[in-house]
Design goal:
There is one protein chain. The chain has 13 helices and 11 strands. The chain has 390 residues and is an alpha+beta fold. The chain has 2 domains: 188 residues, no CATH class; 121 residues. Helix 4 crosses helix 7, helix 7 packs antiparallel against helix 8 and helix 10 packs across helix 13. The longest helix is centred in the middle third of the chain and has 42 residues.
Amino acid sequence: MIKLASEIASIEKEEREKLPYNANIIDDIRILENAHSRILATLLKYAGYDKSYPVYHEFIELLKRKCCAIRSIKINNPKITVNKEFIDILIDESPMYSIIIENKVHWADDQPEQIERYIDIVKAKKTGEKNIFVIYLTKDGSKKVTDKSLTQKAKGILDYDDKKLCRFIELNYKNDLLPMFVSLVNKIDRDKEPLLHSSLVQYVDYWNGRFCMREADKKILQKTAKYMAEELNISSVQDCLKIQDELPLFQKTLNEKQCELMKQVLNEKVISSLKKCYGGDYEFIYMEEIKVAAIKIIPQSWNNSYIYLGASNDDCIIIGVYGNNISKVAAKLLKAKDYKEDSWKGYNKYVIKKYFYSLDFWELVDNGSFLKEAKKYVKEILIALEGKKL
């Protein structure tokens, strides 16, 4: 199976090299979760030459088809912010209504009481509970909200169990936003709104690429599917279903091996050296839900807090201090060194802007570059918090 996957990847690479260059800037800059929030917010807040908010108008129409309770909303002068008070996107016309958008396009983990806390923030802006809407935005709808984030209290406020009144809305890029963007490309007058039109064309093409829906992708997929069918002797629906039944066990086994190798490599290349330099206790963490590994460092004399070194919600590698007893003094010291307050009892900053599952990152682990950065930041934290009761 692994040999077949490698062969299919080689065919895909070979076919892509035959294609003329696809000039999509978004592809090349490899945007992460926060950038998707900024792009969506920019499109939503675009007022247009006639102040009609063309994208936001279509967005509200989409929500009306999903949620009966939102049908009374009228667009006046929406204030749209990104990553303010930890909310990915907030559309605010309080006290008339507020829309919270929680962007999980990259499968970021749900945080404890996350949605409940966001509702409290919006209520403080004088928006009544019945006028608060929460959108849980994912890539393709396969990620579902957990009770850890959407608590019973939050469900009660949002009338979660009432189909007519429920104000918790699941949206995804593949089946909701992408079709909306395609519709807008066809509706918008490119002569009157050239920048908006070109932005939407680029973003539509980007998502078509993510979902292998570009015409070139379809042709490559047909070729790889034909090759796979020949290699696995697939000639019927039953053959396909049988293989699909076997794949979950294969994936589970592969994940188990991946976790084992990650632990081994991080122990050999990073943890052993950090322990030798700074002492303390070290724990390898693997979060099954989001398939992310990290190193938990508990320095000597720390009892209720720890240093986290691993993947962040936007897939970059961060270092941070977390726990239930982080003093205000510690917060000030960390903030003075470019640390940012996290939404879950801690402070962190970027170490390396690399995707955790990229070959680039693990090459940095292998060649010692990641260890060098890790040592620098662990030392910085230990010096900044020396003598503090954590």
